[in-house]
From TrEMBL:
It comes from Triticum turgidum subsp. durum. This is NB-ARC domain-containing protein. GO terms for molecular function: ADP binding. Residues 627-749 form the R13L1/DRL21-like LRR repeat region domain. Residues 230-387 form the NB-ARC domain. Keywords: Leucine-rich repeat. It comes from the Eukaryota. Coiled coil: none annotated. The keyword Cell inner membrane does not apply. InterPro entries: LRR_dom_sf, LRR_R13L1-DRL21, NB-ARC, P-loop_NTPase. The keyword Repeat does not apply. It holds the Pfam family NB-ARC.
Amino acid sequence: MEAAAGAAGSLLGKLLTKLSDDLVAAYVDSLELGHNSDQIQTKLLHTQGLLQLAEGRDASNIPALPALLEKLSKKADEAEDVLDELHYFKIQDQLDGTDYAAADLGDGLRGHARHGRHAARHTIGNWFPCFSCSRAQDADSAPTAAVNNDVDKLHFDRVAMSSKIKSVINDIHSLCDPVSDLLSKIPSSSTAVTLKRPPIGSTIIQDTLHGRQDIFEKIVSDITSGTHHGQTVSVLPIVGPGGIGKTTFTQHLYNDGRTEEHFAVMVWVCVSTDFDVLKLTNQILNCIPATENEAAIEITNLDRLQKSIAQRLKSKRFLIVLDDIWKCDSEDEWKTLLAPFTKGEAKGSMVLVTTRFPKLARMMKTVDPVELQGLESNDFFTFFEACIIGSSQPSDKNYMEGLVENGFLMKGVSKYPPFRKYYVMHDLMHELSRSVSAQECLNISDLDFRAEAIPQSIRHLSITIQNRYDENFREEMGKLKGRIDIVNLRTLMIFRQYEESIAEILKDTFKETNGLRILLIAVKSLESLPQSFSKLIHLQYLQIGSPYGREITLPSTLSRFYHLKFLDLSSWYGSSNLPKDISRLVNLHDFLAKKELHSNVPEVGKMKYLHGLKEFHVKKESVGFDLRELGKLRELGGTLCINNLENVATKEEATGAKLVLKRDLKELTLVWGRAQPTDIDADILDALQPHSNLRTLRIMNQGGTACPSWLCPEILVNNLKTLHLHGLSWGTLPPFGQLPYLRELSLKSISGVLQIGPDYGGFTGTCFMQLKKFLFEDLSDLVQWVVEPNCHMFPILESIDCRNCPNLCVMPFSECSCTSLSRLYIDSCPKLCLPPMPHTSTLTDLAVQKGPTWRERMLSYNGKELVVSKYAGALAFHNLGEVEDMSVGDVSHISWTNIEKLKSLRKLAVGKCDSMFCGELDGGVVFHNMDKVESLRVGVSHLTGKLLSKVFSSCPTLAELEIRSPIPPEDEEERVIQFPSSSSLRTLSFSFSNGLILVPAEGGGGIQDIASLQSLAVYDCHKLLSRWAMGESGVAPMTNPFPSSLSQLHISGESSMRSMALLSNLTSLTYLGLIDCANLTVDGFNPLITVNLKRLEVWNSGGNSLAEGLLSEVARNKLMHAGSFQLERLNVDSILAVLVAPICTHLSATLHELSFFNDKRPKGFTEEQENAFQLLTSLEKLGFYGCKVLQSLPQGLHRLSSLKQLEVNSCPELRWLPEQGFPTSLQALHLWFGSAEQKELAEKLKETYPDLQVHYYH
């Protein structure tokens, strides 16, 4: 019964809201119901009050009450609908200047004529059903009209409306009496329910008192030495809403040292909801120290308790705190409690009372109460941080992780690039919300849902569309129409897009739904919208989405949803054209959409409740895009960008925007779109003065020569945190130093600025105390940035960006300490003299470059990594102690001695610095402080064995070495080296070392003897193995060039390698890559090297296929048995070699990824190959790359139940997909660089498989 009473009470509340509208009330009063709207509201309020009182009581002895409440709820619901409909037509009358829905307030000819006209229409409507207007009727109900077409309005039927209102109001009126009568007979609960409040003492829990310092100091002064000092006892109430901080504030007063010193006796009592004079008096007495001769006896008599208190406090100054008082039945009761405290001889005693009820404060006070207000914004956020984060606020802590650790959120990563992190609500919290709302809210997400299991009371329905539906879904949706009240459904949310067959089912199911308040839907065409879409006059929240790449227009009927408060088009990717009369949405509060849609709203001023507008474009040629439209938006806030201000004709028009009145506007951008200034530009900018609450201001391309009066000589918008000035020619810059909260300052493309300093920009004295970011860019005339000596500016400046200032010579690196500076970016400032970098130890993000692209970067540093390339400036190595990774290229002034100073260095790359190697390293010096270097990349033209030995001596823990030693084409010198021994090297790489030749070391010591080596890569060296004997066919060479410890080997572009016999000892390999080794044959191949492989890549861009011979050898080998392979990834250039039963049998249990590269022979797949494909039961990813003549994919693809990803790259002839489609496990299909037919194919696949991620790249 309690739920029924609550529901009925809520619906009566909604009905009362509708009746409170003056126009609706006037219409109801004109219907001659026998009782006016005030009387109706009084009865509804009375019934609602009884319903509220009935909650929590036992009504089991009144079995008829639930049925009556259900009837009352339905009638209240019906009444809300009909009054909402009436209000709709009232709005339409206001918009059109008509009076079809006006109340008949007299018996004049006009009223009779109007009523007669509607009566005639109603009579005809009874003859012809198409004119029946029991509900609002639409002359053209199709939602697919073009966006710019005129929309027929809904017609108002006065007779039908009047009849319906009379009927439903009379029904409610007749139900209220019996319901009220039964409610009054429900007995009160036998046990009074007492609100339990947690007791709180005087001990401070929150150590810091945030804000309110002024009022705190005043009260301390008043109670210790101020206005209350002459009174025997004063009562000071501290009053405010719950949670405002009354108790915390009083705790700090109570525990202040000045308070404790002033009062001899201090008592704290938590009163809460139990104001019992005897109990409170006893508690207070027990807190007051007894006198020396007082007997210790238990007192229960109030008179004796009061006399004992008076005796103990007779000559003492005291402070009594009565915290959290919720009730006190009478003033006499309060005076009785207070009586013993008024008898003392000492002056200046105090009673502090905290309560949330002003009425109690007024009754108890002897002095004016202190009313606590909310904290100021800065104090509030400090308090908020303290509550949520705690006091320590470690700089390296991710606060979201705390919410994850405590189970409120869970963290996930998206399945596809760019692999974004996201947070989701925990399942338990989600399940709790579903359980609570199960009788009214339902989500259909299962393919096999059953309509009979759904509660008939469902009013809010959501459907999560799945990939495929069978005929059962159509049947169950048909049953659903008869199961729940589809007509009066209040919420309908359809998640995900769906194909046409599903659209038809949904349209049929919801074709009669016309009471929706909330609708969320994604459509591929306007035909997918509900059939009743144009008649959803009650709609208050609407979200419409559309797919990428479809130029769908918004339905023209959108503009007649006059009750709409929230319109969400943030997922609309169709046309940016809006219905031309979209401004008829006069109740719209929130409009979520891309900025192009915001800027296309004509006469936006009619939407007077609109909270946000991203962009407004001033247009001369179009009506409704005058700046005065903004002036009508009194509640406009958030972010606003005004474009095309060059089209503003007069200062009066600019003044009409009334920006100075928009106190909720936080971010404003003013943009002029042309280069040529006009005489009125300055006046227009003057008239666009924003409110002082503004936080971010951008002014771009304004043509005037003077700074506006609200920025110069005094800044009136002094709460700015961000200021961007771009493309200006002002003779004077604003005094930026007057902005106490400024955090970000950007000056870009401002002509005539020779100096930034005291005389230009207000860089004087103690200012910029909050500035964190400063950017100046394209200041072609700027010569210097100077500051006054010993200035106290920029204490928390974190970032300086200086870009394209070709004449800049001076920056105040030495004058300003900038102790918080962490980022410095210098770009295209060729005359700027820099000190040794980084010039301060706080810098952790440093870049110096000579042009805008990353290729022109000369110096970069991020705290751990240092890159120096063609940089001639000095480095402050004493500030680089944390560098772990350093790259040096094409410089001559950095030596090994310098690098030795980097105590934390782990990785070092040196290229085009031959002087560094030929000088110090060729000498006899050993650099012992390089013992932490684990990775070294060396690029040097003349590599020698002696040089390698010195490197290994200087870096004893070296684990990774990359050698890049190219020689010019004209230099045909062959450099034969013997590799020094090492006990720590694990990874070795040779790349583009076209003259380098390895030879077997006499007496050992070559690469083959480095037992620690695990990974070796060779890229485009051409001659590296030319001195190694390849052995006779099928016979291994006497020595192998590589150690048997290798687990990973990659060789590409190595023409000197001719026989697989060189690899015969590598039986521990888990990865083998042989790519574009044109002369390599399978001679000497040892099948045992494949036993431990997890990844194998063997392919050539042209010529013979090594993979065919290699896999044929594996298939023929008698030592191999089914399941012996561990291969997980296979990339080869021969479809024929892989898709044979013996190979696929070996691979069936482990192979997850299979890719074919550059196989230019097959057009399709034979039956034998199709059958072999089915053996790959673990395959998850399949790819075809550069298969130029391939026309079709395997037909049995749909049976690969584990396949998740399919990629086709540069296969232009591919035209046919498998007839049976794809497996249900497939999640993503990527088509790269294909034909126009493949692009069309991708679009069709998106429609056929809405849950499949289909991507086409060209």
